[in-house]
Amino acid sequence: MMPFLLAEFTNLEEILPLYVYCVGSHEQKHLERPEGYPAHQLFLSRSGQGIFRIPDQADMLLTPGTALILPANQPHAYFPYESTENWDLGFVAFDGKAAESLLEQMNQLVLTVLQVPNFELLWSQLESLWQLISLNGEQAYWEASKRIYGMTISLLEGQTSDKKILKRVTSSGSPQPALQAAVKLIHDHYNERLLLTNVARAAGYSPQHFHRLFVSSYGMTPQQYILQLRMRRATQLLQENPAITVESVAEKLGMETSYFIRMFRRTYGVTPKKFKDQI
User: Fold this and answer.
1) pTM of the predicted model, to two decimals?
2) What is the mean pLDDT of each run of 10 residues along the chain (279 residues)?
3) Which of 129, 131, 138, 97 is nearest to 10 (CA)?
4) In CATH, which of 3.90.228.20, 3.40.190.10, 1.10.10.60, 2.40.260.10 is domain 177-278?
5) So which residues are the signal peptide here (predicted)?
């Protein structure tokens, strides 16, 4: 077993784009988190069986060799399948400015029980991460940042090992009126710090149900939709105002400048400045 280990960064969380919050493994007992956990979590079920319970969603059964990605602040509870059963559960919590975009790239894997063909590799990476953090040195946290990224890539690699590309599932028909109202709210406030939990509740949905409906209707996550809105508005601002600075565009979109430049380049293949020069 790897006792619960809380990483103490001495303010490195402001520097590292991805950092480990805590890591460990134990015989899991019943745990309730009605407010969720402040960081994203990756769980690895090594032996025994356990239930994850998410509000407004069917219970999920984790068996040996399975994994679960749980977003930050997601209300949940988990416990052994039988009260007398020993459930060996490993976990690592992580956060950072790159964490949200990382989860967006892996959105099909979130809140889903995953069969992990390379489970022993992931478990060994978890043990290695625990040993590294236990050193409690500043340099260990830089290395831990690299290793938690490596773990997520290993998980993704295992899910696509059959060479099949994960496809988004879309549905036919018009979005529901409440969902359309939520989308209008996004359009009205896309340039603000928009909490999707508030958008979901304003439309009368739980955050999880809202996420599923949105992906089903629009073929992308709400976060991806907001990013597309921002990028389209960015091109309009750059075209309509030749003298506008990149920093001003980022500010109008409610984005930090370096993140805006990175997302613009990912979307259009050029930096905003290069885009301006080509107009």
Assistant:
1) 0.57
2) 61 78 88 93 92 88 91 93 82 91 86 87 88 73 88 84 37 58 84 85 85 79 86 88 92 93 88 85
3) 138
4) 1.10.10.60
5) none
